[in-house]
Known about the structure:
The chain is 68% helix and 9% strand. It is an alpha+beta fold.
Amino acid sequence: MTFRQFAFNNVLRNKRLYIAYFxxxxxxVMVFFTFAIFAFHPAFSSGSINHNxxxxxxxxxxIIYVFSFFFVLYSMSSFLQSRKxxxxxxxxxxxxxxQIRLMVFLENILIGLMATIGGILLGLIFAKAILLIAExxxxxxxxxxxxxxxxxxxxxxxxxxxxxFCISLFVSFILRTNKLIDLIKGDKQPKREPKASxxxxxxxxxxxxxxxxxxxxxxxxxVVFAMVPxxxxxxxxxxxxxxxxxxxxxxRLKHNxxxxxxxxxxxxxxxxxxxxxxxxxxxxxxxxxxxxAFSAIGTLYGFQSYLTKGIKDVNPYDITYxxxxxxxxxxxxxxxxxxxxxxxxxNIDAKMEQVELSYFDLSVRDNGVLIARASDYNRFAxxxxxxxxxxxxxxxxxxxxxxxxxxxxxxxxxxxxxSNIKLNNGKEIQPRTVVESEVFSELNGYYVVNxxxxxxxxxxxxxxxxxxxxxxxxxxxxxxxxxxxxxxxLSHKAFSTxxxxxxxxxxxxxxxxxxLFIGIVFFVSAxxxxxxxxxxxxxxxxxxxxxxxxxGLTQSELxxxxxxxxxxxxxxxxVVALVHGAVALTALSHLFNYNLxxxxxxxxxxxxxxxxxxxxxxxxxxxxxxxxxxx
Length: 631
């Protein structure tokens, strides 16, 4: 058997340990290959699709490629730590340091080659499905037909073979073998009881509480200024949480005899403090990476929701026409006929209302305050199904828009409620109540008065014509064609809410699509880190439970202990990341003054569900390995 065959067989013999590294690397290659398929797609290269999407794909591919380097490097270090005894045995049989380095180099090159080829083949299998998904998510008119991505395959293959070669060379170069006696003993060397500082444990709790409190309390633009300090404080608190506070809690539980001696708790917590201490850095890394994934995807999804829903809330009408100041009456009438003609061409049934909005000189505002007739207000309210207003002749109603957009400072209603409306006959009308409504688009708020009172207001300082249409449900083709004709014939005059949202989604689609892919890569990598740490200690766990089984541990008790131990080790960093993500998205909602509860729940709930499925899969194979070694 040659040395190359020995390295190849060594990979096959350690397939349990290598499988997560191989699958994660293959998935990373597949994602990179998917971006390469987009980047070299004929639809992009022909220039028919916005090149911003192409640039985004290139940036995302670069991020994934750089992250892959550190991911593979960390994975290799985990493998080498778990193979100390193997290296010791090889040295006893006469292997030199140079041969061990060469073996590690060949093994990593072999796994990298197989992961690269496997990722490309897997990408080819799902390429058409991914192109169909992207075609809908990116909202492009052209069809992303399947093609044989020869250039994408070459670029992906060369890029990752080069990456694996560099890492293999780097790892084999820095690999240092310890003394033979230390390698042979491996993990049999006794460990000292892990200690935790009470001061640092309390400090960790205070850091996290301070970071959370600051993130949840700040509002508006202050969120931006508090972002960096909060990130630093929470990151440091997270590190101390896993290195100090978790170990301290485990030690306190072990000293609680009532709890520690209850049923199988002794088996569960006897060495959990050791494992928490040993895996602290891994848990910290997983928590931070997962938090980045949660926050990034939640921010992208939440910002898209803020833009689209905010526009829909502020503009309840499907079409709005606003003429320019110097437009004559004939031009305005011609424009309205053009809008109606376009609606007729596209077979869109719509109801129209128009009103002359008048602004009057009041002390509360220099540029005039909008005062609307109740009858005009009610006509528009009926169009969108809003509640009508019926002020009497002695009162005015203050109307303000809801907080759909980012606003700071005192609300407009506060100033309007403090001011009375003077009539021509010398009487004053006092505002009585405040209502929220989107009937008229006026961010600064306005008054609604009785029609008889309106006639006594005098001459306005300014007037604006507002013409709106409310349509029945339109399909995407109708929206796009109508919006295109508005841009051609009535540029900057006719505004279609649905077409604006369509354009936002079209521009934002590539960003969300790219962010989702990068977030998934980060999340899968974080799950793989946990898998590495769990299965690295598997041989030691087998020996421990084999010894305990000899003194009467039943299979059901073993399963219960293993399940709880895996769950604590697996979900500790994930739960921390979910809490971090929830706080981050809550702070984001405070920045935009927009409720992101639904969006945050979808993102965090979706990732939590995926992690639970991943946990059940890992648990199944872990328990199977332990049972196989004992029974």
